[in-house]
Fold this sequence. Notes:
- By secondary structure, the chain is mainly α.
- The chain has helices at 5-21, 23-26, 29-53, 62-80, 87-116, 120-139, 153-156, 164-181, 184-194, 196-201, 206-232, 243-253, 265-284, 289-326; strands spanning 143-145, 158-159, 162-163, 234-236.
- A hairpin with a 2-residue loop joins strand 2 and strand 3.
Amino acid sequence: MKKYKHLFIVFIAIFILLSLLSPSRFLSLNNLQTMLAQVPEFGIITLGMMIVILTGGINLSITSASAFSGIMAASFLVKYGHSDFNIFLIILATVIIAILAAIFTGVLNGTIIAYIGVTPIIVTLGTKILLEGICIRFTKGGGISNYPEEFFYLGSGTIFGIPVPFVIFALIVIFLYILLEKTSWGTKVYFIGSNETAANFSGINVRKIKMQVYIISSILSAAAAIIMMSRYNSVKANLGSSYLLQSIAASVLGGTNIAGGKGSVFGTVIAIGIIQIISSGLNILNVNRFITDSIMGLILIVVLLINSFQNNHQLSSLFSFRKKVGS
């Protein structure tokens, strides 16, 4: 955990600063509960973004995939949720439909990127626009709501006093940590991000791994959609759209190299907390939404510059070492 020390310091420093700027509002029970409620949905989307960036790709369609899977699931839930069918089976079917819709978007992205070879940023931007159009067509610009009361448990219920969304988020964090950092599959993901050509020559099925990565990313977006649906009792075409830029910023802030090959789950989790308190703090201070987005973009640029300088410094040190050895 030593390598995350600087992130902990940043997290504590920002928390203290915002607490001093607006102690009565930022430290209020309502604001703290709001921040805690938003962390799981934002965190799950960020983890879905991070796993794609590890391969050197990006998923600009992740929030649109979340809205798409949520709308597909909500359409089913509203139609059958108030019928005489067993409500728990209906909710289970709703979750499955959301996952299947997400898998469709993951396969679409993965096929074009991994098997056809189109640049990820272009593919996922196109998928984002496509899914937004489909979502607007289904919702007609409005929202889908009126879910059965039992469904709200997924977004606002508790297990031994712990919010259900937090339990889901924690399980996903543990699963991804084990998958990425403790298995050969995770090693292959890092290898592909570091040097895709070398990964190909080493016998790794790069196309298959990339396909799986985009499917996992989309499934995580569906998990976030289920939580947001349950918490808001509504789903719209722009569900979770504000998390797109923030998820990229949190991934990079957490140590994920935007070029791929480097990153960690726990570093990303700490960065999620940092971005969340910044976003909530700016909202508390009545900072305009557009200015907030600009600040998030500035954070992303600064972190990218810092990472670039660090990488250049490491390369310079390596060349200097080789020169000394050669002489």
